[in-house]
Design brief:
Elements lengths: L2 H18 L1 H7 L3 E11 L14 E10 L7 E10 L5 E12 L4 E10 L12 E11 L4 E8 L5 E9 L1
Antiparallel strand pairs: 1-2, 1-8, 2-3, 3-4, 4-5, 5-6, 6-7, 7-8
């Protein structure tokens, strides 16, 4: 099944589910945001996949819902898909919590689980863990998210968010 067909199937399922509980969704989803997943930068090669063989244009879409927050902290949930560094489609879900450093910069963690990584190391194809993240509120409608996968061969991930 192609990427577009998968997205249509997931979108339709979400619309049907959300349409049946739209009043409740408005109560917990304080501010929806469309995510344009896009780029990654790998900083180290390994024997399985050298840097020059990795896909660093990770196109995809996601949806983020801001939650009620915890004290001064902002929190949100996110789900979507992207074309990962192995040129496979990954579906992901995440919970993020961020502390405001000033009016436009927020620092925190995104705890993520993603599919599409079936390798010798990840036999199930699923990876999970925390990603330190900086969120820049470029405007009231646009944000830039930079996350770091802190491991031996570190990866920086970037996506844009558009609030609607």
């Amino acid at each position: 099944m192609g990427l577009v067909q998968q997205w249509k199937k997931i979108s339709l399922s979400c619309l049907l589910l959300c349409g049946s509980c739209s009043a409740q969704a408005l109560d917990w989803c304080a501010q929806p945001e469309l995510n344009l997943n896009g780029l990654s930068k790998h900083f180290d090669s390994n024997e399985r996949l050298p840097v020059d063989e990795r896909n660093e244009v990770n196109t995809g879409l996601g949806l983020t819902c801001a939650l009620k927050g915890v004290g001064n902290w902002r929190d949100e949930i996110e789900a979507g898909f992207y074309k990962n560094s192995h040129d496979m489609t990954s579906f992901y879900a995440a919970y993020g919590i961020y502390y405001p450093l000033n009016a436009v910069i927020f620092a925190g963690l995104r705890n993520i689980i993603a599919t599409g990584y079936k390798t010798e190391r990840y036999r199930t194809g699923v990876v999970a863990g925390p990603l330190p993240t900086i969120k820049f509120e470029v405007s009231s409608a646009l944000s830039l998210n930079l996350s770091v996968l802190p491991k031996r061969n570190a990866i920086v991930l970037a996506n844009l968010g558009y609030k609607f």
